[in-house]
Structures are given as structure tokens and as C-alpha cells.
Amino acid sequence: MRAVEHIGIAVRSIEERLPLYRALGFEVGGREEVGSEKVRVAFLLAAGTRIELLEPTAPDSPIRSFLTKRGEGMHHICFQVDDIRATMTELRTKGFRLLSDEPRSGANGSQVCFIHPSSGGGVLIELSQPGE
Ligand code: ZN
After folding, report:
1. Which of 7, 13, 70, 126 is the most buried (most CB within 10 A)?
2. Which residues contact 42 (CB under 8 A, 6 or more apart)?
């Protein structure tokens, strides 16, 4: 593990939340739609900190159900890893559950996986191997 890659925050509307983060000094570093997760994301950058705002794009988006159950707020924390497949194998060997058997494609060409909440102690943890 190398660093906190970003902190994911679930929002109903990215546009509605941008004024707050802009007031805190964040700049929009990129926007993307991640089809596999049915979300639209905006990455906000300030002083080496990255925030990922996640807005649902479909009624069956996992972010939509999160918002329905818990409202807007902290959704996950993402750690950067060098080799996601090796990390997934190690976690499984140690008995931790993952949400998928294979890495999935995330934002910016990254490969990501999530640790199952039952193994995460109440925290949804994403692992991300940067794109080439
Ligand atoms: Zn994320």
C-alpha cells in the first residue's frame, strides 16, 4: 500500500456540492462517467488530497441505494496499491472477503476492487492500481 488515493463522497448532485469544495480551495481535476458503477464522478484536488464526488446515473446504481439508505456523506476510502491482483490474492489468502473476483475498471484507467463491508469493519475500502 502506498497512499490514500482518494476519499469517496456520495452526493445527489455534483454541481450542488462544488461550491463548498471550491470554497475550501479544491479544484476540479477531472470528470468521468464510470459505466460499470453507474456513477458520474468528479475528482477534486487540493494540496495532494483527492476527493471523489459520486453521483448516481441510474435508479439501480449502488450509489443511489446508498443515498436512499444513508443520505449524502462519506462513502469509501481508497488506497493505492502497486499490484492489485497480488493484493487481492493476499487478502483472500488471509480470509478477507472482496466484492469481486477480478479487478474492475475504475476512473482514469485504473483497476479497482472493494473489500466486502463484512470484512471492512464498517468502512468500505477501495483498492486502486493506477492506469498506465
Ligand atoms: Zn473511489
Report:
1. 126
2. 14, 18, 28, 30, 31, 52, 53
- For the domain made up of 3-129, the CATH class stated in words is alpha beta
- 9, 75 in Cβ contact below 8 A? yes
The predicted-structure confidence for 55-96, as pLDDT tens digits, reads as follows 999 999 999 999 999 999 999 999 999 999 999 999 999 999
pTM above 0.70, yes or no: yes
**Which uninterrupted H or E stretch holds 129?**
strand 125-129
128 CA to middle of ligand 1, Å?
8
Distance 11 CA to ligand 1 centre (A): 13
Instruction: Measure 54 CA to ligand 1 centroid, in angstroms.
Output: 8
**Separation of 92 CA from ligand 1 center, angstroms?**
21
- pLDDT tens across 93-120, in order? 999 999 999 999 887 789 999 999 888 8
Residue spans per domain, the chain? 3-129
Ligand 1 centre to CA of 22 (Å) is 20
